[in-house]
Specification:
Length: 269
């Protein structure tokens, strides 16, 4: 049969092709903005662009668990960038657990767990890039659906835990650090009650955005006390299986967190 003697492609051929596509996507000049007439302003750093592109290719399947990336030297030459931003990108992906550093300067793709795929929310965003309005639009979409599901699906044991965490917050009006720990557990309990792992992961990723600013906000007198009251209202509505009341209470809570975050950002300037 013709072609029967053809040499099979090396096992890393797919990785090389995927990497070539990745390089081109990072080096490709930005498309012109039709309304402005000039190039689109690139707000993200080169390291963030590289990390995001690698993560995107892992999600799409172009890079798979077990695949090896080229060496740092090869990637630096291919991307046309210096080692520092490349290493910053690789370090971020390694911290997230998406890449594993191996001896000899090669990085290997690990796994595609949902928590790792949404980790860029927390790793990549800095206060300078943080858009409060965008963030809370996203949180509203996800967290409101979490509340609907939690109200309908949470077990009696989950409802009790949500209520206990809400009420226990009353002991931490003057202890921002302790309250932040409890607040994390309260929102995670809501996520667990929704019984949807993917949506829960998205909600947690969005919760983690802007934490540096919210640490400042939680120290402002009255902020924690209001949050605790709202937690109790949410918990009471969930305990009563009253979806409309639970959704309304969560909306008020998100608006409070958004507004206190905006005020803290203004005070930090």
């Amino acid at each position: 049969m013709a072609g029967s003697d053809a040499t099979p492609a090396p096992p890393e051929a797919d990785v090389v092709d995927a990497f070539s596509e990745l390089v081109q996507s990072v080096r490709r000049p930005p498309a012109p903005d039709k309304d402005f007439g000039g190039p689109v302003v690139q707000r993200r750093s080169i390291s963030e662009q590289v990390a995001t592109r690698i993560l995107g290719m892992i999600k799409s399947g172009n890079l798979r668990p077990g695949d090896k990336l080229p060496t740092e030297a090869q990637m630096s030459v291919a991307f046309g960038i210096s080692r520092p931003p490349l290493r910053e990108a690789l370090k971020a992906l390694t911290i997230m657990g998406v890449l594993e550093s191996r001896q000899g300067g090669r990085y290997t793709i690990t796994d595609l767990s949902p928590s790792r795929l949404v980790a860029p929310f927390n790793v990549m965003l800095s206060v300078a890039d943080y858009d409060v309005a965008e963030h809370f639009e996203c949180r509203s979409l996800v967290d409101i659906e979490i509340i609907r599901m939690c109200t309908a699906r949470a077990t009696a044991e989950m409802r009790q835990r949500i209520m206990k965490l809400a009420v226990d917050g009353r002991a931490f009006h003057n202890d921002p650090v302790a309250f932040r720990l409890l607040d994390y557990e309260f929102h995670q309990a809501l996520n667990d009650g929704a019984a949807n792992g993917m949506l829960s992961t998205l909600a947690q990723g969005l919760y983690d955005v802007g934490l540096d600013v919210r640490r400042v906000a939680s120290a402002v007198p009255g902020v924690i006390e209001k949050s605790v009251r709202q937690h109790v209202q949410i918990a009471e509505a969930i305990a009563a299986k009253d979806e409309s009341a639970a959704v309304a209470a969560m909306r008020r809570h998100l608006e409070h967190v958004r507004d206190s975050t905006l005020q803290s950002m203004a005070d930090m300037r």
